[in-house]
Structure formats: C-alpha cells, structure tokens
Amino acid sequence: MDRTNLAPGRLIRLLRIGVALIVGFGLANRSIALEIVRPPASQTIFLGDPVSFRVEAQGQPPLQYRWLRNGKPMDGVSGPDWTFVTSAADHDATITVEVIDSTLRITSPAARLTIDPGLPGAYRTNRLVEVVHPWQYRVDGVLPHPQWPGSSDTSTGWTTGGGVLYVEDSELPGPKTTLLPATAGKLPTTAFFRTTFVNPITNAHSIELVASLLVDDGALVFLNGSEVQRLGLDEGTVLPTTQASRGVGNAAWEGTFPWAATGLKPGTNALSVEVHQSGTTSSDLVWGLILDAVWQERVRDTLAPRVVSVTPPLGSAVGAAPNRGASKKGKSYQ
Q1: How far is CA 145 from the centre of its chain?
Q2: Angle at 50 between CA 45 and CA 56, to 5 degrees
Q3: Most CB atoms closer than 10 Å: which of 36, 237, 266, 308?
Q4: Taking every pair of C-alpha atoms in the chain, what is the biggest distance, in angstroms?
Q5: CB 85 within 8 A of CB 48
Q6: Measured between alpha carbons, how far is residue 75 from residues 65, 69, 240, 331 in Å?
C-alpha cells in the first residue's frame, strides 16, 4: 500500500483500528488473578435440615472446585455450591473449598457448621416388635455361621415362625404361635433366633429401648451385632454349649428391661438371639419378645422467651447506688 496516497483522515482511522486490535488482543490474553471473592459462610442449622454452602471466585476459566469437610475431600461435589442434609455428626464441622485454575490452587477460609439439636418435646412410644412378630429359627444346636451374630451372617437352613415360639405343654402368657421342631428332654443346649424390624423414628431428641422377654431358660440378645441383654447367663464368653445359669419352671414375662439405643439405626435393624437351656434333660424351650421405643420428639427452639420472675418485684422503689467518691459526715466511701 502506498501510504503517500492515503488521505490524512483515513490514515488516522487505520491507525486507531490497529491500536484497538493490539489492545484488545492484549486484554484477551491477560490472565485474571485467581481470587476467592466471597468464601462460604458459617451457619447454624436445625438437625436434619439441609444446609447449603457457596463460594464465589474469579480466575482464569475454567475454574474447578474441591469441597472439604474437616479436611476430607467430599466425593461427587465439583461446583461452587454444596448442599447436603445435616446429621449430628456434622456438629462443629469445618467447611473449606479449594478453587483451582490452570496454574494455581487457593483454599477458602474455614466456615463452621453448628448443629442445633432443638428442644425435647412430648414423650411418645412406638412398638417396634410385637409378640407375634415373625422370627427365623434353628434348633439344631449348631452355631449358624462363624460371624454369628454379625451382619455378614448369610447362613441358610432357617425356618420362619411367629412368636411365641415354644416347646412347652403348659399354658404361656402369650400366644403359642410356633411349635418348634424339637423334642422335650432332648432339646439342644442352644437354639438360635433372628429377625429384623423397622425403626421409623427420625426426629428424636432422646430415645430408649424397653424390652419384655418371655424365655425358658436363659437368653443372650444382640441388636445389630452388639449385646444388649443377658438373662440367666453368667458373664464371660458364651458358646453353643454354654448352659443357662438358672432353670425356669413355667416361662413368664420378665422386664421391662432398658436397652441402650446407641446401636439403633434408622430404618431396618437386626435382632439375633440365643436361648440356652439349663441342662441336657430340659423339657421346655420358649422365646418371645416385645420391644418398644420410648422417645422425645425434637422441636425447634424458636419459641419467644417468657418472663419467669422479676427482681425486684414490680412496683418496688429502687434507689440509686451510692457514689463512692462522695462523703457523708466527713467520711469518705472507699
């Protein structure tokens, strides 16, 4: 191009376009410093409610996000937002997020999650296991599985029947539902029973299990693999050959017995039971159970405060406090 033939105005316009292209190219290629503009905020959440954390960041795109709870990365969370349903284990958790671009990684200040457990409400009772609840049983006297009574017990050969399960000629204080296939006087030292039940309680401030047992002669009860009741059996290791420490004439309901609810889970739970005889010539075998959950519901502590007492009483005259720097009859208050 012959610049001598360009008009001055056209030359100026071309120069301006060139400058604009150069500046624009430079801006497009200038990296944006990685920065957390707004970190996740600390929150207090009612137990069981969902909680959401959010981070706002800028940097050279694309940005990646890595959320951590108590320093442990959370799988499956990869965006600037993280929402989950809270549990008691989340109390006092620290929440951080790493923001990553093509060259840098920065970590946000920690947000703290406080779980509000609420206040205890009214007492309620749920029947978890009825006396006629179905049980699986084995009366061959052989340990069902090496992992008994653990959750990995996948043994077969069980038969199912409802409670009360029995080898007993006398009347019982409960429905004689299932006659066990065993012979009086030749009973196995130990019979094995197992079942599952559903715990529907999800909003308990406190909970206790209460059990009543119908057993002849002794029983060892496990909830989700952990011992919760030992009746008529000595302390120490209990084997299939271990005899009960007592004899029972005619079985009667015993209890109620409190069970710790620490092993109770929401949803499906497993009960495993061993019923032991007191001797090799025992003539009766009985197993029955009633299990209740006694619990207090959780209520949100959002009630307005109320005046319990007023001190001094309303209408009382209240004098001013003495001035320590003042004097009375030549004496100074110190």
Answers
A1: 29
A2: 90
A3: 36
A4: 126
A5: yes
A6: 11, 11, 45, 76
β-pairing, 165-167 vs 178-179, is parallel
Among candidate residues 129, 103, 118, 128, the one with its CA nearest the CA of residue 49: 118
What is the CATH classification number for the domain harbouring 293? Answer: 2.60.120.260
pLDDT band at 84 (very low <50, low <70, confident <90, very high): very high
Of 231, 196, 198, nearest to 213 by C-alpha is 231
Q: In angstroms, rounded to a whole number, what is the distance separating the alpha carbons of residues 252 and 215? A: 7
Q: Token pair of 235, please?
A: 């302390």
Task: Indicate which CATH number applies to the domain containing 50.
Answer: 2.60.40.10
Each residue of 290-315: pLDDT tens digit?
999 999 998 987 655 566 666 666 66
Determine the structural domain holding residue 63 and report its residue range.
Answer: 35-117
- Count of Cβ atoms closer than 10 Å to residue 156 Cβ: 6
**38-65 as b/e: b if 16+ CB within 10 A:** ebbeeeebbbeeebebebebebeeebeb
* CA pair distance 188, 241, nearest whole angstrom: 9
pLDDT tens figures, 108-148:
999 999 999 899 999 999 999 999 999 999 999 899 988 89
- What does pLDDT average to over the chain? 86
